[in-house]
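To whoever is on call:

I kicked off a structure prediction for a single chain this morning and the downstream step that reads the tokens threw a length-mismatch warning. I double-checked the sequence; it's 62 residues and nothing unusual in it as far as I can see. Pasting both halves so you can look.
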Amino acid sequence: MTAIFEDHLTEPGAQLELAQAKELVATKKVALLCFEADHHGCHRKILAERICEDLGCPVEHL
């Protein structure tokens, strides 16, 4: 599923939404809700890591 989600992120709509998420993260704390028991299996982990790589902020899994 990770490869499928990574492919999805290359689409223009996904890139726009990723840019919007980065704008939010740049100005305040943001939480991405997930129902996966283990964050390693969640697609939001990919988003969080990508955003924080670009912005230099930490990811905290609760």
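Update from on-call: the warning came from a stale cache, not from the record. Cleared it. Sanity check on the structure: The chain has one domain: 2-55.
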